[in-house]
Amino acid sequence: MYTQEAIDVLINRIGWSDLSSGLPFGLTPENKTANSGKKFNWYHSLVLVDNIYAAVPEVEMSESEFNNYLADVRNQAVSNVLTSIFDTHVDYDPLVDYSNIIINRSTLFDDSIGCSVAIKMIELFISTTRSNFNERSAKMSYQSLKVELEGARNDNGHFIAKGIVYKLEQSIKKAQKIIFPFKIIVNNGKAW
Known about the structure:
Layout: H1 4-11, E1 14-15, H2 29-32, E2 38-39, H3 49-55, H4 63-87, H5 99-104, H6 110-127, H7 131-136, H8 142-150, E3 152-153, E4 159-161, H9 164-179
Parallel strand pairs: 1-2
Antiparallel strand pairs: 3-4
Helix pairs in contact: 4-6, 4-9, 6-8, 6-9
């Protein structure tokens, strides 16, 4: 269990960068808020708002609709990360309030949130039917985007390139190890 206050702390950790924005409008201050100083394009260089605007299904999306879309992506990423770290862990107790851990150790969640958003945006780029995005990204093939997501393995099954999905899995495991440390259980009181 965690409070809305703890969720809001995570939502505002990483923001959207309008550094290379070719948008016909600006981002809201809420979408640019990054209390950690990190931006989503730090997790993958393709996660730029102009790429996202060119890939969303609705052509000529209005300023408020697009800002709402970006806010929703960030909110969903935080929700998914909290579920992945807490709710699916074997030691998670739904009666315990984990809000203080989330607020005091918020940096634990940065990489998971950033990778989660990067994955969703690259999936958007892969699945978009917008022709203008395809023309802008002619150099990005479906296969190269899949490698960005999933990585690549050699014939022996070893990674030769680790994708964002791998990085997300590792960041979730890292957070879980810190939040739910391994407990040594002694079944027998007699050691000798």
